[in-house]
Amino acid sequence: MADNYDVIIIGGGPGGYVAAIRCAQLGLNTACIEKRINKQDEPALGGTCLNVGCIPSKALLDSSWKYHETESSLADHGINIKGAELDLDTMLKRKDTIVRNLTGGIAQLFKANKVTWLQGTGQLKSGKQVEFQPLDGDVQTLQAEHVILAAGSVPVDIPVAPVDQEIIVDSTGALEFDAVPKRLGVIGAGVIGLELGSVWARLGSEVVVLEAVDAFLPAVDKQIAKDAQKQFAKQGLDIRLGARVTGSEVKKDQVVVRYSDKDGENEETFDRLIVAVGRRPYTEGLLSQDAGVTLDERNYIYVDNQCRTDVPGVYAIGDLVRGPALAHKAIEEGVMVAEVIMGESTQVNYDAVPGVIYTHPELAWVGKTEEEAKDSGDAYKTGAVPFAANGRAMAAGETGGMVKFVADEKTDRILGMHVVGPQASELIQQGVIAMEFGATVEDLQLMVFGHPSLSETVHEAALATDFKAIHVAQRRRKK
């Protein structure tokens, strides 16, 4: 093993492994340090996302939705299946196989691109030295011309519900239940809480979600969030807002949760409890005292728009830095930093980073909400059209939700796009592309959209922004 590298990346998650591959593609002698040991007791790349986050949760979301469809809605299509049985063990094994295939694929990409995978932990010291502690062996000091910090994040712990990964679990433990809980509690009605709550609700759990904030998904456009909340309620998700958990107690195989709301003090008993109140940057042991890297008051690493830290030649990306904790943001930051190291002027467009919640219906958004546009004081216009007016959605039995645009009234530029409904995670990319190219609402209005397709609702929403919608009746807003 070499002691000197052009680039050392600490962290092998989406941001780290992509940065490593891109650096190697650009001809840099690159090493990536990753400490993760997977559930098969093997070293693994891919970080939280591929091992215990984005990928396994989506595998269970898809599997659980197929089970739910089989039980509740296939009969509407003339498909009658009696006696469908849930084989949870097979469902979980399928999830694990997908994870192993993807993480193993990254290891093969490292070999193909000649990235050195250092299995263990790394700590940045002064002078761009990295102290490397192998999983098996003695500590070594490595030297790099450039260092990229990509250690990711971990779930936030709360004292009122200490995680034991048996009765009270975090997002990782919620992927490994060996049986469907009869009653499941979820603390936090954010992305993770809603997605994991949805999985187990579809498989038969009675799910109660406790959210301390009074508003549902406060960062999401209010019209979209309100529509989603109604649809989740129809599905049986019991979402209680303004419910602040004050304590919990495990009693045998159950947990008693105490919380307060506008009506006073309350108690609920659950078979399992998921704590999903957010994530925090993982900086423990990452930086020596003399590393010179600045942290802010929330323990995020301070960086500029191209992810440079205060130390020349040291960068930080992904969940360690400002902005949403999204794998795709980390990936693009990894590519950007690799190219900046080579003297290129690559820049992530932080105004066009999409967000997605993979419930059913899905929620997705990019750019400004209507509330943000209003608060800016600039003149704006909106257009929203429901999927109920879309033939493809009707044929698929997926008529819930809508597409909404927010645009600058003077320039006609698209400021934001918001979707709740079928394939929202895919449809939102049309808004991302439009915003990336500086498109106007008129640009979308003049495009030809295939018929029948869900994308026609994107077209109709663009038309509706100027009261030109064809397939829905519109009333002009009062000035």
Going by helix content, strand content and strand pairing, the class is alpha/beta
Number of helical segments? Answer: 12
> Would you give the CATH topology of the largest domain?
FAD/NAD(P)-binding domain
**CATH homologous superfamily name of the largest domain?**
FAD/NAD(P)-binding domain
CATH class of the largest domain: Alpha Beta
pLDDT averaged residue by residue: 97
Helical amount? 25-40%
Strand order within the widest beta sheet: 1-2-3-4-5
Cα gyration radius (Å): 24 Å
Corresponding CATH architecture of the largest domain: 3-Layer(bba) Sandwich
Give the CA-CA distance, first to last residue.
Answer: 70 Å
* Beta-strand content bin: 25-35%
- Total count of domains: 3
Shape, principal axes of CA atoms:
globular
Question: Uncertain segments of ≥5 residues (pLDDT<50)?
Answer: none
* Strand segment tally: 21
Largest sheet: 5 strands, mixed, barrel
Protein name: Dihydrolipoyl dehydrogenase
InterPro entries: Class-I_Pyr_Nuc-Dis_Oxidored, FAD/NAD-bd_sf, FAD/NAD-binding_dom, FAD/NAD-linked_Rdtase_dimer_sf, Lipoamide_DH, Pyr_nuc-diS_OxRdtase, Pyr_nucl-diS_OxRdtase_dimer, Pyr_OxRdtase_I_AS
Subcellular location: Cytoplasm
Active site: 451 (proton acceptor)
Give an overview of the whole structure.
With 479 residues, this protein is an alpha/beta fold. The chain has three domains: 221 residues, 3-Layer(bba) Sandwich (FAD/NAD(P)-binding domain), CATH 3.50.50.60; 110 residues, FAD/NAD(P)-binding domain (3-Layer(bba) Sandwich); 113 residues, FAD/NAD-linked reductase, C-terminal dimerisation domain (Enolase-like, domain 1, 2-Layer Sandwich). The chain has twelve helices and 21 strands. The strands form five sheets. The chain has a five-stranded mixed β-barrel. The chain has a five-stranded parallel sheet with strand order 7-14-8-9-10, with helices on one face. A five-stranded antiparallel sheet has the order 17-18-21-20-19, sandwiched between helices. The radius of gyration is 24 Å and the shape is globular. The model has no long low-confidence stretch (mean pLDDT 97). It is found in: Cytoplasm. One of its GO terms (biological process) is 2-oxoglutarate metabolic process. This is Dihydrolipoyl dehydrogenase. Pfam families: Pyr_redox_2, Pyr_redox_dim. Its cofactor is FAD.
